[in-house]
Amino acid sequence: MPTTKKEHTYFGLMMCTGMVVVMMTFNLLYNGLMGSMSPLEILFQFVLCFIVAFVVESFIVGPVAQKIAFALPFNKSNKVIGILAMSVCMVVGMVLMMSMYGMLTAYLANQLNGKSLVETYLHTILRNFSLALPLQLIIIGPLVRYVFVKFIKAKENAAPFVNTGA
């Protein structure tokens, strides 16, 4: 899919936007925080979560997931299997990292109420993974790939207009 650094950045921004919007909304609803936060607080939380997710995806999870996915024994010429391998590796890494981020924000907001950190983290991972994997494989991933190919790749591959003076 993305081949240049610029394309990787656009693709990552699009993927993070979709996943953060859905996952953050899900977690706010699950934890009963949607009604207790102002729209400005929700926007602030979204921006902060998006920045963390983008940095984690770009510099930690993305490179590691790519190495793991393409080290797996599968026919590399099969693009569908390559996309699935990469998507699963990304989801696993992002769920592990962003669930930790969620735990940290819950701890800082005194929302853990004496619950076991390990038990809560494992529960959070399972809950987030159960939404993130199908979301990535069925909705956000295909949608972002479609938009990326249709608008970003098409624009990058379009031949520039050359004025020959004739």
Characterization of this structure:
The chain crosses the membrane at residues 12-30, 42-62, 83-109, 129-148. With 166 residues, the chain is mainly alpha-helical. It has one domain. Helix content is 78%, strand content 0%. The chain is built from four helices and no strands. The chain has helices at residues 5-30, 39-71, 79-108, 117-157. Helix 1 crosses helix 2 (39-71) and helix 3 (79-108) crosses helix 4 (117-157). The longest helix is centred in the C-terminal third of the chain and has 41 residues, at 117-157. The protein is globular and about 50 Å long.
**End-to-end separation:** 37 Å
Average of the residue pLDDT scores: 92
Indicate the radius of gyration in whole angstroms. Answer: 19 Å
Total tally of structural domains: 1
Portion of residues in helices? over 70%
| Poorly predicted segments | none
Show the helix and strand layout.
Layout: H1 5-30, H2 39-71, H3 79-108, H4 117-157
Helix pairs in contact: 1-2, 1-4, 2-3, 3-4
Note the main attributes of this structure.
single chain; 0% strand; 166 residues; mainly alpha
Task: Provide a brief overview of the structure.
Keywords: Membrane, Transmembrane, Transmembrane helix. The protein is mostly helical and 166 residues long.
